[in-house]
Amino acid sequence: MNVGALLRACRERAGLTQTQLAQRLHIEQACVSRAENDKKKLDIQTFVDWLKVTQAQEVAVAFLYGMDGVNIINQIMPFIGG
Description:
Shape: globular
CATH architecture: Orthogonal Bundle
Number of helices: 6
Number of domains: 1
Number of strands: 0
CATH class: Mainly Alpha
CATH topology: 434 Repressor (Amino-terminal Domain)
Distance between the termini: 22 Å
Radius of gyration: 12 Å
Order of helices and strands: HHHHHH
Strand content: under 5%
């Protein structure tokens, strides 16, 4: 699984557009798009901030342990009203 898909799923789960997320992270919308399409790697601080803003820290932990982050999001969405 690619990191971009995970980042996109986290943003979408949070109900944010690329522009809204970019504003909250103080980066350009194009940077969000490139990261979600695996054309840009985020520095660790931006990655952590992305997960905080989208409230997806638990997904990142699961992903880092080798679990499919998008699948995790799909499984928990019914429980959080998404």
